[in-house]
Amino acid sequence: MFTGIIEEAGTVDSFTPAAQSWRLRINAKVALRDVAIGDSIAVNGCCLTVVRFSENALEFDVLEETRRLTSFSVLDAGAPVNLERSLRFDGKVGGHFVSGHIDGLGLIQVFEQRGSDHYLRIRGPVGSGRSVVHKGSIAIDGISLTVAEVEGDEFAVWLIPHTLSVTNIRDKKAGDPVNLEFDLLGKYVEKLAIPYLSRL
Questions:
Q1: Are 184 and 98 in contact (CB under 8 A)?
Q2: Is 70 exceeded by the pLDDT of residue 197?
Q3: What Rg value do the Cα atoms of the chain yield, rounded?
Q4: pLDDT (tens digit, 9 = 90+) per residue, 123-155?
Q5: Mean pLDDT of all residues in 36-43
Q6: Is-same-fold flag (8-85; 104-198)?
Q7: Burial letters for 125-143: b for 16+ Cβ neighbours within 10 Å, e otherwise?
Q8: Which one of 11, 19, 39, 71 is at 20 to 30 Å from 151 when CA atoms are compared?
Q9: 72-128 pLDDT, tens per residue?
Q10: Distance CA 86, CA 189 (A)
């Protein structure tokens, strides 16, 4: 479980195919604090398990399906990635509950500065608009953000300068894919409510 509050933007050192998976090596600092083999770390919002670490890098095994269905499919050495260690019971919940399980890919439609903030508009997968609520929460590449607009399968958020300075979103542009995780509580409500409503 995560909160969507990014701790740092690490840098991909390498991302190469291995015998049974892909091996992702990321240079990091904050995410290495107190790390242990088996720890969960969200990488661009995707929950991965630490299989190896050194003084300045973390390593993960990534399944081909994960690579194919997420923005990892375009990940190269040198790319910045958002990192967040899993939620501790004695920690703060500053964003919202994020599971680290990606629901789908979004495509950036508009990303531009408006005043001192930035406007980001994304098109989600077909039919995903039902899972996005105005003023609700959404995780974009693991970043907890508040939905400002919803129109069909497109939605928009506003980004403050701090978010740009500590995450990889600053390097994105129109046409880039991003990992989306819709609000966890909303997904449970939808799962429970649809069978009931279909009987009415």
A1: yes
A2: no
A3: 17
A4: 999 999 989 999 999 999 999 999 999 999 999
A5: 97
A6: yes
A7: eeebbebbeeebbbbbbbb
A8: 71
A9: 999 999 999 999 999 877 666 677 889 999 999 999 999 999 988 999 999 999 999
A10: 24
Ramachandran class of 129: left when φ > 0, alpha when ψ lies in -120 to 50, beta otherwise: alpha
Q: What does the pLDDT read at residue 170?
A: 94
Residue 76: Cβ within 10 Å count:
8
Q: Which CATH number fits domain 8-85: 3.40.50.2300, 3.40.47.10, 2.40.30.20, 3.40.50.170?
A: 2.40.30.20
Bridge partners, residue 123, by sequence = 107, 154
Residue 25 CA to its chain's centroid (Å): 18
